[in-house]
Write a structure and sequence with these properties.
This protein has 147 residues and is of the alpha+beta class. It has one domain (12-146): Electron Transport, Fmn-binding Protein, Chain A (Pnp Oxidase, Chain A, Roll), CATH 2.30.110.10. The protein has helices spanning 12-26, 71-79, 103-112, 114-117, 129-135, and strands at residues 34-40, 47-57, 60-64, 81-86, 88-96, 141-146. It starts with 11 loop residues before the first helix and ends with a strand.
Length: 147
């Protein structure tokens, strides 16, 4: 089993870029794959937001955390639900995927968003599923379930 990945904090530029795209997604003006994720802080109760990209596979939606166990991941795990906005808001329950379920989702995520997230993966998008199985423990992945 692979060791947990170290969280990679976004740069100031990335934070600004994420805020801009998060705002645009929230009002419905971003590309269709970008959503504004909102989740309550597990300690503060404050509402936190970040821009995210979804993966659609076999008629299901998934959320991947390419940077590892971020604060939004920990908050979402504690809450058991998130809200996604693209103009309108959808409240969704989350189901963490077992490491054995992650490889096809991770592969598709990296393939679809390689230019934005490729640097967070130690393998290329065309690597075999077995390679994604090896790195799966370092990447939180959630199935999104309508509330």
């Amino acid at each position: 089993m692979a060791a947990e990945r170290k969280y990679e904090e976004p740069s100031s530029f990335e934070k600004t870029f994420n805020r801009l795209f998060g705002f645009l997604a929230g009002v419905g003006l971003s590309p269709s794959y970008i959503h504004l994720l909102q989740v309550r802080g597990r300690k503060s109760g404050k509402l936190y937001s970040t821009a995210v990209n979804l993966v659609h596979l076999n008629d299901k939606e998934y959320l991947v955390a390419p940077r590892g166990r971020t604060q939004w991941v920990r908050n979402a795990e504690a809450a058991g639900e998130i809200t996604l906005k693209r103009g309108t808001a959808r409240k969704l329950r989350i189901r963490p995927l077992a490491d054995s379920e992650k490889p096809p989702v991770l592969k598709l995520y990296l393939t679809d968003y390689k230019s934005a997230v490729g640097r967070f993966f130690p393998i290329p998008s065309d690597a075999p599923l077995e390679s994604f199985a090896e790195i799966a423990p370092g990447y939180p992945v959630f199935e999104l379930i309508p509330d």
